[in-house]
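Fold in tokens:
===
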Amino acid sequence: MTLIEWRSDFETGVADVDLEHRELVDLINELHGQLGSDAEPDTVSAFLGEVFARISAHFALEESVMRKHNYDEYEAHKTDHEKLLDDIRDIMDDFEAGQFDNYDEALSGAVRDWFVNHFKTKDARLHKMLGV
């Protein structure tokens, strides 16, 4: 089952950012599929680490685009990025500590809701303000 269906309204018009958005959605969908198939803890842990690393790298790219264009809501956008990374890190820590029975639901729900809302609000505004 696909967690996040790609939609054209997720696109910012910045080719590198849009490519990474698509790749992140694919990665998240893959993780969601693996979590639902009783993956081994080491596999889940490695995959969570990969998701965290890829999202962090993507945010660095997006933030560099915003700085380059003196984006007026840079700080709020960056804060939103940091919140998701903190949430993922908390899930990773809880998983490693054995405190998660439903880590797949927690991660999937948090990431799906965050990405869909972020794409439709923050990234849509960024696209509009940059005029791309």
Summary: The mean pLDDT is 81.
